[in-house]
Write a structure and sequence with these properties.
heterodimer; A: mainly alpha; Arc Repressor Mutant, subunit A; 2 domains; B: about 300 residues; 3 domains; disordered N terminus; disordered C terminus
Chain lengths: ~180, ~300
């Protein structure tokens, strides 16, 4: 899941434009990044993930830090890309007429993808439970569980303190418990 | 991390009122150890969430993306994959998802150069379009305004006229033409109409693109003519009486022609009465077609 001791060498090679190094980075992080974007309801997680990695490639010259910092930095970019995409989606006029069907089909498709992953009646309850959380609580759980980030890295992505992230994740779990208790 | 904050407070002063320790929560979220009590009840939910993590991409996809990323490092001035709104629609998204394996197969079979050639013909919304743009931006593949215009024509054929105008505006912007602003304005009007743009608007956009692809972009009045087309398209799109019904009075059989009763011989020209930009042009340019079909508007 991580590059470990090889990270420094991989990073140096990536800075030099070595394809093998980028293959290592992409193989390591593409799944979590795309999964995070998908779990947060991004419309086109694969597109956003691709854009994220391109931005990483272009910005690598200014990056400094260890593997944890790098991972956190990549998710910061992904998170901001997702926010930008949401803002852009809000600015776009609502499609009318026939395009409504296309939108519904897209939503259905998105749910189907999640359904494939989640599968089963019990997982349907998860979807409902997550809907009961706040955006920030969902961000925290997605970054921690899907992105496999630490509390500190999650805090860096969301611009919060580690303590605030702990509060958020605790409240998220409590809310999930209450939702499950109510079902 | 392993402290026991059973009555701890967060940094922001919120009462966490914890029934669980940080360590217990950490183990749950990391998927390690065995949870007990309430946390054990939450574990299936957390594990289902963890299952959303996408698996590792296949070898061909990794190789393809690695090539693009390495190129991006070597050419940091490139501005990345530019998404068009057409490509961002959900239907296009699932088409891409469904076809990622195909892209990977192409990349594996033909390598980056072969894929660039294959992707050159892609239009926004196509499986290969994102790769096409990414490769162009790092200096691989044709790219350029001519390819943008070809892509825009494909979009018009699909009925995605607003995206076609955006793409045409991209093409002009790439060559530094300020008429791109007029096209963006027209595209915004078309976007606001949703799917209500008339066949005549579609035809007029197609006509403009055909003309743009054959006209000399360096000619003195290229930008003016594009602006005239753009304004006319915007006018037609924003006037439902004209644009919604092709059989409307004064609009019969004029699809693809300028909406100017007194200018029936000017098919393929933008309807721009009183356009002072045309002052000084030969009179024939204002009244007779300079091209049999979809020809350049008033392009002497």
């Amino acid at each position: 899941m991580t590059l470990g001791d090889a990270f420094a060498a991989v990073l140096a090679a990536a800075r030099a434009g070595e394809e093998w190094a980028w293959a290592e980075i992409y193989r390591d992080l593409a799944g979590p990044v795309t999964g995070y974007l998908a779990s947060r309801g991004a419309g086109e997680p694969e597109d956003l993930a691709s854009e994220t990695f391109l931005q990483v490639a272009r910005g690598l010259g200014s990056f400094e830090g260890d593997e944890g910092d790098f991972r956190s930095w990549v998710f910061v970019i992904a998170h901001r890309r997702m926010q930008d995409a949401r803002r852009a989606a809000k600015r776009r006029p609502q499609p009318a007429g026939g395009e409504a069907d296309e939108v519904l089909a897209g939503l259905r498709s998105s749910l189907d993808v999640e359904g494939e992953v989640l599968g089963g009646v019990a997982d349907e309850r998860l979807l409902t439970a997550l809907d009961g959380l706040s955006d920030l609580q969902r961000d925290v759980l997605a970054l921690r569980v899907v992105g496999d980030l630490s509390v500190a890295d999650t805090a860096a992505v969301l611009g919060k303190t580690p303590g605030a992230v702990k509060v958020l994740q605790h409240r998220a779990l409590r809310a999930l418990k209450e939702i499950l208790d109510g079902t | 991390m392993a402290r026991n904050p059973r009555a701890s407070r967060g940094d922001n002063g919120d009462d966490m009122n914890t029934e669980w320790s940080d360590h217990e929560i950490e183990m749950l979220l990391r998927g390690r150890g065995s949870a007990s009590g309430d946390l054990a009840r939450l574990r299936p939910v957390i594990e289902a969430l963890r299952a959303r993590t996408q698996g590792q991409p296949d070898t061909a996809s990794v190789a393809a993306m690695a090539s693009v990323l390495a190129e991006a490092v070597r050419h940091p001035s490139s501005d990345g994959i530019r998404k068009r709104s057409g490509a961002s629609r959900p239907a296009a998204a699932w088409r891409r998802r469904a076809g990622y394996a195909a892209v990977a197969a192409i990349l594996a079979s033909f390598g980056i150069a072969g894929t660039a050639a294959a992707a050159d013909g892609a239009a926004p919304g196509d499986l290969l379009y994102g790769i096409d743009r990414a490769l162009e931006k790092v200096g691989i593949g044709n790219g350029g305004s001519h390819e943008r215009l070809q892509e825009a024509e494909v979009l018009v054929e699909r009925g995605e006229v607003d995206d076609a105008l955006h793409l045409a505006a991209d093409a002009l912007r790439e060559q530094g033409d300020t008429a791109s602003t007029a096209l963006e304005d027209a595209a915004a009007i078309l976007e606001s109409n949703g799917s209500e743009n008339s066949a005549e608007v579609h035809a007029r956009v197609a006509e403009m693109l055909r003309w743009m692809s054959t006209a000399d972009p360096k000619s003195a009045d290229f930008g003016q003519q594009v602006s005239a087309y753009a304004h006319q398209i915007g006018d037609k799109a924003s006037d439902p009486d004209v644009s919604a019904d092709p059989n409307a009075p004064g609009n019969s059989g004029n699809a693809g022609k300028p909406d100017n009763p007194g200018n029936s011989g000017s098919a393929g020209k933008p309807d721009n009465p009183g356009n002072s930009d045309n002052a000084g042009k030969p009179e024939k340019d204002k009244t007779t077609p300079s091209h049999p079909s979809g020809g350049p508007p008033a392009d002497g």
